[in-house]
């Protein structure tokens, strides 16, 4: 019974994310989600005290899964290769609905403390993953000894800046230029 309960909870969360990606977080309603899943509203509110709780849980699950998937794809690679894989993963070559989900979250975070806390936790996880790669590279003598936290902040600022530009008018050419610039930064700084 407990397994089915958790499966339904996960189905609700994943269904919410699918709609958020399609429409934006703030444009999805409880009614749309219940119709999408073929459930009654009582199912939703059995698992979540309110709509915001569901939204936050769905976003947190989705973002953690993205981090877990990336960490899995980085396992066993050398630090330079890890950063290359991360760049390719992060930068959109074409229209990317997932980036619209993050954009929707950022808009909500600008005026809602609960969304801001979630967004900041997620950003900190990305920063820590990148800092760990840099520290690993320093430890293996693949990178120069330096202030890993500062270089991480600089790298993430560049990564976010390029990704924001690519969200507006993505193209493989722009993505390649951004990737080249980020790799140049890695060569110069690390």
TrEMBL record:
<dbReference type="Pfam" id="PF00440">
    <property type="entry name" value="TetR_N"/>
</dbReference>
<dbReference type="InterPro" id="IPR001647">
    <property type="entry name" value="HTH_TetR"/>
</dbReference>
<dbReference type="InterPro" id="IPR039538">
    <property type="entry name" value="BetI_C"/>
</dbReference>
<keyword id="KW-0805">Transcription regulation</keyword>
<keyword id="KW-0678">Repressor</keyword>
<feature type="DNA-binding region" description="H-T-H motif">
    <location>
        <begin position="29"/>
        <end position="48"/>
    </location>
</feature>
<dbReference type="Pfam" id="PF13977">
    <property type="entry name" value="TetR_C_6"/>
</dbReference>
<dbReference type="GO" id="GO:0003677">
    <property type="term" value="F:DNA binding"/>
</dbReference>
<keyword id="KW-0804">Transcription</keyword>
<dbReference type="InterPro" id="IPR009057">
    <property type="entry name" value="Homeodomain-like_sf"/>
</dbReference>
<dbReference type="InterPro" id="IPR050109">
    <property type="entry name" value="HTH-type_TetR-like_transc_reg"/>
</dbReference>
<dbReference type="InterPro" id="IPR036271">
    <property type="entry name" value="Tet_transcr_reg_TetR-rel_C_sf"/>
</dbReference>
<feature type="domain" description="HTH tetR-type">
    <location>
        <begin position="6"/>
        <end position="66"/>
    </location>
</feature>
<protein>
    <submittedName>
        <fullName>TetR/AcrR family transcriptional regulator</fullName>
    </submittedName>
</protein>
<keyword id="KW-0238">DNA-binding</keyword>
């Amino acid at each position: 019974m407990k397994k089915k309960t958790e499966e339904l909870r996960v189905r609700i969360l994943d269904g919410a994310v699918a709609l958020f990606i399609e429409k934006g977080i703030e444009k999805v309603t409880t009614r749309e989600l219940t119709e999408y899943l073929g459930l009654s509203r009582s199912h939703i509110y059995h698992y979540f005290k309110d709509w915001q709780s569901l939204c936050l849980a769905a976003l947190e699950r989705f973002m953690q899964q993205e981090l877990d998937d990336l960490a899995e794809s980085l396992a066993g690679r050398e630090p330079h290769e890890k950063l290359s894989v991360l760049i390719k993963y992060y930068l959109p070559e074409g229209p990317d609905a997932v980036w619209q989900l993050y954009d929707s979250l950022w808009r909500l975070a600008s005026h809602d403390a609960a969304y801001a806390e979630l967004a900041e936790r997620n950003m900190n996880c990305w920063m820590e993953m990148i800092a760990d790669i840099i520290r690993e590279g320093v430890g293996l003598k693949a990178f120069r000894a330096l202030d890993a936290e500062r270089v991480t902040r600089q790298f993430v600022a560049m990564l976010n800046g390029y990704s924001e530009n690519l969200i507006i008018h993505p193209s493989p050419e722009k993505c390649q230029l951004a990737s080249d610039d980020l790799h140049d930064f890695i060569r110069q700084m690390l």
